[in-house]
Design brief:
There is one protein chain. With 390 residues, this protein is of the alpha+beta class. It is built from 13 helices and 18 strands. It has helices at residues 5-14, 28-38, 66-76, 133-139, 157-166, 172-190, 227-230, 240-247, 266-278, 295-306, 325-338, 354-364, 374-386, and strands spanning 22-25, 43-47, 60-63, 80-81, 91-92, 96-100, 104-115, 120-126, 144-148, 193-204, 209-211, 215-218, 251-254, 259-263, 285-288, 313-320, 345-351, 369-371. Strands 7, 8, 9, 10, 11 and 12 form a six-stranded antiparallel β-sheet that branches. Helix 5 (157-166) packs across helix 6 and helix 10 crosses helix 11 (325-338). The structure holds adenosine-5'-diphosphate and magnesium ion. The site of magnesium ion has 3 residues, from loops.
Amino acid sequence: MDIHEYQAKEIFRSYGIPVPEGRVAHSGNQALAVAEELGGDGWVVKAQIHAGGRGKAGGVQLSDSLEAVQQHADRMIGTRLVTKQTGKAGRLVQRVLVEQAHNIDAEYYLGIVIDRNSQRITLIASASGGMNIEELAQISPDKVVHETIDPAVGMQDFQCRKIATKIGLNGKQIITVARMMKQLYRCFRDNDALMLEINPLVRTTEGQFLALDAKMSFDGNALFRQADIIDLRDFDEEDPKEVEASGHDLNYIALDGDVGCIVNGAGLAMATMDAISHYGGRPANFLDVGGGASPEKIANAFRIVLEDPNVKAIMLNIYAGINRCDWIAKGIIKAMGDQRIEVPIVVRLAGTNLEEGRRILEESGLDYIPAERLSDAAKKSVAAAKGTGV
Ligand code: ADP
Ligand code: MG
């Protein structure tokens, strides 16, 4: 689960991690009021969306007058901001963060992630702040430094000092940033975060270190014990199909292809997507309907997959172990009876009560394309989506 920059900064504040003074605003007038309250002679208006790359896309505007703050906020709110991370459709800006502008002397990068190789929390830092860290790690890996944290003892002072030294800090700066790293580690661990990123961490011309940007994402499986974090969820930033699917206990992830997938089991769902790609198609989604999918659940799955206007064909791939093919067949009939389905549907059933399932489908008179094996089903779905027949 992702949160907005202003929310991450509030969490940072509660851990004593220094961030610029600022507040969120929902209109130009509110933004003006926030800037007045903050005082000073320079402000930054920052679009709040769950995506980075805002600076280069015009979503972060320095303003040296109150009028400019109001104008920038008015212009941003209600429009869609397209950044490198949003895709072509962009994201609707519903609020902005207005904060004090700072004069920047140096920009650094500081992040905490869970490293899959070591399976440990890892601190990442760089003296080249403000850049895309993945890109930087590819073109100049020597400019990105890492430190793995041992969960038994937590982040140690010497590790923080080592990293701070490696990114070129010295003297008192090392102590200041090392303290910040330890606070960030606590913030990460206490809240079951998966990722925390400050890009850039800046040193101002007055010598102060500040988190100018803040990003956090959290482990969805741990939200049950993070009541304060759940409250920060912004459904407007999520794909409505994914929200609806989770309400029906379906694991759905929207993708950008045109072959809709309805599958039981996460492993089979991934194999299905691989098979579609292998035969030259592109899956429109990942969807695992789970083990004992009832006819209602199958019908819900169809509805959600069909809400995606890009879907040109559906591949239903069920291996019934706990489930039963006759039940699935009834689900398909229910789905096709409940709604107008205008795309071809390829059905591949295997496992328990296969004969009964096939018989029910055949006798229903429904218009579908039967398939025997995974490869056969994938080939037929790709051809159906391309409109080249099967
Ligand atoms: P994004 O990563 O989405 O582009 P950032 O929050 O990193 O957004 O902002 C982009 C750039 O804008 C920063 O690298 C920094 O140079 C500048 N900036 C952001 N906030 C401030 C601020 N409070 N004062 C001065 N400059 C800022
Ligand atoms: Mg940034």
